[in-house]
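We modelled the chain as a single entity of 233 amino acids. Its sequence is:
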Amino acid sequence: MSNTATKSVVLVHGGFVDGSGWDGVYQILKKDGYDVTIVQNPTTSLADDVAVTKRAIAAAPGNVILVGHSYGGVVVSEAGTDPKVAGVVYIAAFAPDAGESVSTLIANPPPGASVPPILPPVDGFLMLDKEKFAASFAADVRPSLASFMADSQVPWGVAALEGKVTAPAWKVKPSWYLVATDDKMIPPPAQRHMATRAQATVVEVPGSHAVYVSNPAGVAKLIEQAATSVVKN
């Protein structure tokens, strides 16, 4: 790896999960010489998650490649305008424009799109139906791990889904987007639309919404492409 490349990566998880799903990506990036921080967001509100992510960016050495999966894409869109962020990478993620939130982006799903098995909110928090978690979120993850992910869900705050982005990072930072072509949580056409709007460098990879778990090599490859190419900008 070039000495001038960005060597810090900050990984931001999405809703219903925590940062442990990044383990495979983390191991590859560490082996390749990157400093990696895994953010553990409470997913209670967008403001809280952005604050936690910004602390991770501040603590990371040098400039940072900021990576978000799913709802983490909203967090990195808002936090990624930080001057230390050299580029933003979206992994099967929401990439909202100003004034958009997860709630607005999922309000009108395209015809025929899968409907995620989200249970009615309890005390302001959402969960996925455990029985349907694997099929919708992690169809290509080994069954024992998909079951663990279902049973270790992090309740996702309704307030986090409603948090609106003010100034999206993709408008001012180079961005990359990995489309998971078998995603049953965020329809691939929606992913492509957001990626195109963000003028992101796009790769398409076969995989479920949990592509970062099932195909860490493909995800790490795009992150490393981002890290090495921002030097040229």
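As a brief sanity check on the tokenised model: The domain at 8-232 is CATH 3.40.50.1820 (Rossmann fold). The chain has one domain: 8-232.
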